[in-house]
Amino acid sequence: MMEAATGSGISLEELQLAARNHGMPLEALRHAITPAGLHYLLIHFDVPVVDAATWRLEVDGEVERPLSLSLDELRRRPAVERTVTMECAGNGRALLDPRPVSQPWLAEAIGTAMWRGVDLRSLLDEAGIRTDAVEILFTALDRGIDGGIPQAYQRSLRTDEPALDDAVLAYEMNDAPLPPQHGFPLRLVVPGWYGMTSVKWLTQITAAVQPFAGYQQVDAYRFRRDEADPGVPVTRILPRALLAPPGVPDFFTRERSVPLGPVALEGRAWSGLAPVERVEVSADGGETWWDATLEDDLGSRWAWRRWTAEWRPSGPGRYVLSCRATDAAGNVQPLEPVWNVGGYANNAVQRVAVTVAH
Predict the structure, then answer these.
(1) Are residues 116 and 30 in the same domain?
(2) Which structural domain range is residue 328 located in?
(3) Which of 161, 146, 159 is nearest to 218 (CA)?
(4) Nearest C-alpha neighbor of 348 from the set 268, 238, 274
């Protein structure tokens, strides 16, 4: 992946990506469930035009009973619902220096939706995965060129990956059919993992005896110190807390203004590694911290948690608000980002500039 020179502007190619893919406006953190039109969106290639009447899901490979299922046949199976926070692995990439040249995410590549569909594990059991299968490969309908390689978008998971037990083959999002841009007619949702794992426009599930060596698995989505480093895979979502910016914004800079007096702060926090158990807030750029109040308004292990706090500015002036999450496994957001070639999983604390008026 290329790097932008320190201080250089966004390229035309990055602007094209930013126009196609959108983040969730941070004020939408006030919604427990993100409306579909505000949920973050990343499309690797093109949005396929799919005829639901002729589309089928094939389950094949090392299985005892191969399946070929229509959308209606999937809908007739017992349905499950999962409320899941999904985050793009590149969230925060544009804040790195030097900046990896790709989709220029700041902190908005996030959203929480209610997904309804078929329990993946039950479908795999129905097909009968053979004991020699080591991975489950998921193939999408969208095709393109990445890293110079023509390909369908594909990702795999090990057969012993615990997340398979909670994964959903979703045909609805927020009580409505999947929108085209979110994977109509069927997508995979893997709770706790970064969004690249939740393959959209799903058309094939294959039990394989060899690990998948496709581009999206072994070249993309890996933590690399430099181009020569083979790296390690990007997997589960690192802990993050975000603040819904208070007050009102400046149109161009997005800096916030609030009146002098107590300021109610709120946001959301999540982690794919372990449940979030603490959120702290700072008004001085991370020098000092105080505890926020955590809620569990959605009651889902895989959904973000709302947090609230009160801030009493000491007087008029400019402040920098920050928040950080700690999960039950002791993982804490860092104050500064950890650079890597792809710009993945930058979960450094958010900083929101706020001017307190007289």
Answers:
(1) yes
(2) 240-356
(3) 146
(4) 238
Tokens of 263: 């300021």
CA-atom Rg of the chain in angstroms? 21
The type of residue at 199 is V
State pLDDT tens for residues 230-259.
999 999 999 999 999 999 999 999 999 999
Torsion sign (Cα): 343, 265, 303, 273: positive
H helices present in 174-327, as ranges: 215-218
Name the token pair of 51. Answer: 């005829």
Looking at 191, 209, 233, the residue that finishes a domain is 233
Q: Is the pTM of this model over 0.70?
A: yes
Are 201 and 343 members of one domain?
Answer: no
- Residues 270 and 332 occupy one common structural domain: yes
Distance, CA of 21 to CA of 181 (rounded, Å): 10
Distance of CA 254 to CAs 17, 27, 257, 283, Å? 21, 12, 10, 18
Please tell me whether residues 75 and 155 are part of one structural domain: yes
Residues 200 and 261 in one domain: no
